[in-house]
Automatic annotation (TrEMBL), chain A:
Protein's name according to its UniProt entry: Cyclic nucleotide-binding domain-containing protein
Originating species: marine sediment metagenome
Highest classification ranks of the organism: unclassified sequences, metagenomes, ecological metagenomes
CC annotations in GO: cAMP-dependent protein kinase complex; cytosol
Annotated ranges, domain Cyclic nucleotide-binding: 29-132
PANTHER family in UniProt: CAMP-DEPENDENT PROTEIN KINASE REGULATORY CHAIN, CAMP-DEPENDENT PROTEIN KINASE TYPE I REGULATORY SUBUNIT-RELATED
Pfam families from the UniProt entry: cNMP_binding
InterPro entries: cAMP-dep_PK_reg_su-like, cNMP-bd_dom, cNMP-bd_dom_sf, RmlC-like_jellyroll
Automatic annotation (TrEMBL), chain B:
Cellular component terms (Gene Ontology): plasma membrane
Organism from which the protein derives: marine sediment metagenome
Keywords: Cell membrane, Membrane, Transmembrane, Transmembrane helix, Transport
Intracellular or extracellular location(s): Cell membrane
Identification of the protein by name: AI-2E family transporter
Keyword Isomerase: no
Record field: transmembrane: 12-33, 39-57, 69-94, 151-173, 217-235, 241-271, 278-296, 316-337
Main location: membrane
Length: 174, 375
């Protein structure tokens, strides 16, 4: 992985840059952005490499931001002392997790572990807030997309709740 | 059991290398410090300036200016400030101090010496004691002012070699994110979020602290200038160089507890040397002005602009000022307390991070998963 300090912009590998751009473009939060705006986002994301079975985020740690899988595979797990470990999701290239932490510092609700050696990008709240202040138009675009995703999730949760309630009522009525 | 012994051995080896590395780093710093002291002071000043000016760059960027343009404008501002300081203020301060020293060495000091001698002769009937006291006071005064003059001369030469500081500041502002990313890219994954979070929090708090201190110093300086200006109007100008004295009072205010006293002393000395007809009243008004400025500062300004988390015990302040003085003279005394404040803020954030992140079980979940995979 290239160091941002010693890396030379002129000789940077074009295809790697393209793959970061392509990955960012796939993420719904950034899908509406123009190439110039994506370049601004690219400046503030952190690129990391995680080995197989390495923990990316711990449940209970303060939330700091979201992660995007450039290539690799990640398992999101919930650990409970009584029930043990429960897999919530398995994510692959282009998927993202931890996006709620872009809004507040509440503890992480689940852990994420790399299933294979994975390249991951991190987009963090302090940089996001700084971006909103420095480039309000771009910040609002990202914020609006984030609100849309959370809204969709809430709608989906509501639908599930209604279904569960209906099932409960049917069960009670016989 | 064997595997446990191997794990213990590797842990001990890791700790041994860490301790060895820390000892080598400390030894290097102690050995190299005299050679890198000047560079370090320049870097610290540039960093403080960058912290102070970054919000301005961000504000200009927020208003729609490109980052490069914003930095360029701020850069020109830095050059203008440094230029004004260099051309106007420093030679004037040196001249003032020299005038004060020459006055002390001539007529005024003789006059005060005679007054003190008479007082001792009348009350204690001991002329020799009086002469000893005045001689000691005279020596002390000249020594103190001499060192003050040297301080400003050293600041002058420092400023002369400081064309480089604006450049360092420029790159610190321009590439701050790049430097941060570069630093964080070398942090192991298990400490990555912790380090990033702590770094951001320290950056925010230290930035707020430095900006707060600078605002506080600016307001105290302006209030002091205003107070001294009113005294000059009322008593027909008994305090020349009141603008410089007010600025010095603002700077001295960076040192809690001792700063206000340091700030008032030059005004008192200058007034005494000028020897106006109603000296007693003028001195009283100077003391009143500085007390009022301190009251305004403590009641209204400080609580609003300076973070409460940086409140320091008087003993801490005294120790910091002594160490600062030993390391970098008068400049060190001035910056010792802000730097201690920065260290205090940073360490509290590190402690917060260690408490809130699961450092004791860094790869608990991952370990469990790998165990499961092996099964």
């Amino acid at each position: 992985m290239e160091s941002p300090m010693w890396g030379n912009g002129i000789f940077k590998k074009k295809n790697k840059e393209d793959s970061i751009f392509a990955t960012l473009k796939k993420v719904p939060i950034f899908s509406d952005l123009k190439p110039k705006e994506l370049a601004e986002v690219e400046k503030i994301v952190h690129q990391r490499r995680y080995k197989k079975n390495e923990t990316i985020i711990h449940a209970g740690d303060p939330g700091l931001g979201m992660y995007i899988i450039v290539n690799g595979s990640v398992e999101v797990v919930e650990e409970d002392e009584k029930a043990g470990k429960r897999t919530l999701a398995k994510l692959s290239d282009g998927s993202f997790f931890g996006d709620m932490a872009l809004l507040d510092e509440d503890p992480r609700s689940a852990s994420a572990i790399a299933l294979v050696d994975s390249d991951i990008m991190g987009f963090f709240r302090p940089d996001f807030l700084d971006l909103i202040y420095r480039k309000p138009k771009l910040g609002i675009k990202v914020l609006l997309a984030l609100a849309r995703i959370i809204g969709e999730r809430l709608r989906h949760t509501n639908e599930l709740l209604v279904k569960i309630q209906e099932r409960k009522d049917t069960h009670r009525n016989g | 059991m064997d595997s446990y012994a191997f794990q213990l051995y590797s842990q001990i080896l890791k700790i041994f290398w860490c301790v060895l590395l820390i000892i080598i780093a400390i030894a290097f710093i102690v050995f190299a410090f005299p050679y890198i002291k000047d560079v370090l002071i320049m870097l610290i000043i540039a960093w403080l300036l960058a912290m102070l000016l970054s919000p301005l760059v961000n504000f200009l960027e927020h208003k729609g200016l490109g980052r490069s343009w914003a930095i360029l404008i701020v850069m020109i501002l830095i050059f203008a400030i440094v230029g004004v300081l260099f051309i106007l203020l420093i030679p004037r301060i040196i001249r003032t101090v020299e005038v004060v020293i020459s006055k002390l060495q001539s007529d005024v000091i003789t006059e005060y010496s005679l007054k003190i001698e008479n007082f001792f002769e009348k009350n204690f009937n001991n002329a020799e004691l009086a002469r000893n006291v005045t001689a000691t006071l005279n020596e002390l005064g000249i020594k103190l002012l001499g060192s003050l003059g040297e301080f400003f001369k050293s600041v002058g030469s420092f400023l002369a070699s400081m064309v480089i500081i604006p450049f360092i500041t420029f790159f610190l502002i321009k590439d701050s994110r790049r430097f941060k990313r570069a630093f964080i890219s070398h942090v192991p994954n298990r400490y990555f979020e912790l380090s990033l979070n702590i770094l951001h929090k320290i950056g925010n708090q230290v930035g707020n602290y430095i900006q707060g201190q600078a605002t506080d110093a600016l307001i105290v300086g302006m209030l002091s200038i205003l107070g001294l200006f009113i005294i000059n109007l009322a008593f027909h100008g008994p305090i020349p160089y009141f603008v410089l004295i007010g600025m010095f009072a603002g700077l001295a205010n960076l040192i809690p507890y001792l700063g206000p006293v340091f700030g008032a002393v030059p005004a008192l000395i200058i007034a005494m040397l000028n020897n106006p007809p109603n000296l007693g009243l003028v001195l009283l008004w100077i003391v009143i002005v500085f007390i009022i400025v301190q009251l305004i500062d403590n009641v209204f300004i400080s609580p609003m602009v300076v973070s409460k988390s940086v409140n320091m015990h008087p003993l801490t302040v005294a120790v910091a000022v002594i160490i600062g003085g030993n390391v970098a003279g008068a400049m060190g005394m001035l910056f010792a307390v802000p730097l201690t404040g920065i260290i205090k803020v940073s360490s509290s954030q590190v402690i917060w991070g260690i408490k809130n992140y699961e450092l004791r079980h860094p790869s608990r979940v991952g370990e469990n998963l790998s165990k499961k995979n092996k099964q």
